[in-house]
Amino acid sequence: xxxxxxxxxxxxxxxxxxxxxxxxxxxxxxxxxxxxxxxxxxxxxxxxxxxxxxxxxxxxxxxxxxxxxxxxxxxxxxxxxxxxxxxxxxxxxxxxxxxxxxxxxxxxxxxxxxxxxxxxxxxxxxxxxxxxxxxxxxxxxxxxxxxxxxxxxxxxxxxxxxxxxxxxxxxxxxxxxxxxxxxxxxxxxxxxxxxxxxxxxxxxxxxxxxxxxxxxxxxxxxxxxxxxxxxxxxxxxxxxxxxxxx
Length: 246
Fold this sequence. Notes:
This protein is an all-alpha fold. The protein contains 8 helices and no strands. The two termini are 20 Å apart.
């Protein structure tokens, strides 16, 4: 059985093989530029953000500052991570869509169902990213609010971790599904019906994104891994059938 870790190791080797590596280096270069700009901004403002959060802790909870401070740090780092991830994926989406299509053709011997032209594919990929943002941002905002509520925010890091795994799964597994004309709603149904492979895959991708600089070279492998996971776990699921009915 293909598990998430095996898919990621196979996918990483695959994208740097001859014939596929040319689809990898341009998004890496673009993301390096974005990475440098955002890192400089975060380093310059992180201290002020943290001070502002700590100033909002009520006096009656001051005795818990030893615990609240690290929780605030973790929550803030996770929010910065999500912001960076959303921006880089919005930029890289057209490149990753092309990469997923080429990987699928190589591993399955057949092209994806997508019959759109090159330009239309790129434009639609950006549109699909906006659909993802419309799904992600309200939930991210809710978690942000939870992170500010005294006592309740003690569970915020765990919620952010689970949310991160789910969103990473949606972000990357959507590339082969979009290429095969699976709607965003149906994609979420399919992922929900295979929660264990979905969350383990998303969890591993989340860990990869936390490797500074190295993540830019490993994330294309996550795209190829998504194609492998699509072939093994999700392609055969009936379209539009609720998870509980499967």
